[in-house]
Every structure is written in C-alpha cells, then in structure tokens.
Design a protein that fits this description.
By secondary structure, this protein is an alpha+beta fold. It contains three helices and six strands. A six-stranded mixed beta sheet has the order 1-2-3-6-5-4. Strand 4 and strand 5 form a beta hairpin.
Length: about 140
Amino acid sequence: MAELETGLYAKLAANGTVAGLIGTRIYPDAAPQAVTYPCIVYQRIGADRAHHITGASGASGVLVQVVCLASTWTAARAVAAAVRACLDAQRGMWGAVDVISCYIQNEMDTLDASPESDARRLYGTQQDYEIWHRE
C-alpha cells in the first residue's frame, strides 16, 4: 500500500508546469534550511476513513496542506496556480496511489518576515486539499 504523500509527490513532480517553476523542490513537512526558492512544502493535517454497514470501505479522505513558498508574491502565486491546476478536481493513479477525488478546500496567502534577516521576506500561498484515495 503506497502512502498518499508518495502519490502527491509523484503527481506534482510529473507535472510540466509545476516542475518548470520549482524543479523537484517538493518537501514533506518542512523545507531544508538552505533551500532554493520557490519550493513546495506539504503535510497531512487530517484524515477520515469511510465506513459502510459491514465495516471499513477501504477509502480514506486525507486533508493535505500544500504551501508554495517564494521570495516574491508573484512567484508564490504562480506556483500556487500551477499546483491548483495540477491537483484540483483530479483523480486517477498518482504514482501507485489510486486517487478517487481531489478538491481544494481553502487557499490563503502567508508572509514570513524572518527575524534572521530584515532584508529577506518569504511569501507563501497555502492550499488545503481534501484527497480521497483507496487504501
């Protein structure tokens, strides 16, 4: 059984528009300390397992947060638009993961004015996706 996150990485990395903007800079949980921007960070923030009257259905709904980070608003939003086009309302095989449905639930901008350097600001667009897949 492949983890949904493995399939999510495969889906994003295989998309030409996403890859053209960030290459393979797609990270689980947190970006490395010396990362090159723009990049994507993703993490599981919730899960629901569907049941029917006789037990588990084998379907799982995972809430995944995808954050597109860049040194400018324009770059962060361009990556976010590419991610949204890649994931929203999609289904099928994402690597070895059978995705039943994927829909964006929320999107918001973020700003990190890092205390490490007053000159460096980090812009982001955070997206939450509900992704149902077969376990």
